[in-house]
Amino acid sequence: ENSNGKSSSKVEPKKRKLGGAAKPEPMKKSKSGKEVNGVVAVKLSPLEGQ
After folding, report:
1. Residues 6+ away with beta carbon under 8 Å from 48
2. Which residue windows does the record flag with biased composition (Basic and acidic residues) (predicted)?
């Protein structure tokens, strides 16, 4: 039952990811405009570092 409680918390962040995935075009532009999605910017951060 405790697992269910944690599942609920994971559902919220997952929904946010869906929003970003639904817009693949803006995701690519995120490189120029990191304001598209904080999560996307974080993933691009390591890429830009290299």
Report:
1. 31
2. 25-34
pTM comes to 0.13
| 48 closest CA partner among 34, 38, 1 | 34
**φ, ψ at 30 (rounded to 5°):** -55, -30
Cβ-contact 23, 40 below 8 angstroms: no
SS3 of the chain = CHHHHHHHHHHHHHHHHHHHHHCHHHHHHCCCCHHHCHHHHHHHHHHHHC
What is the Cα–Cα distance from 22 to 16, expressed in whole angstroms? 10
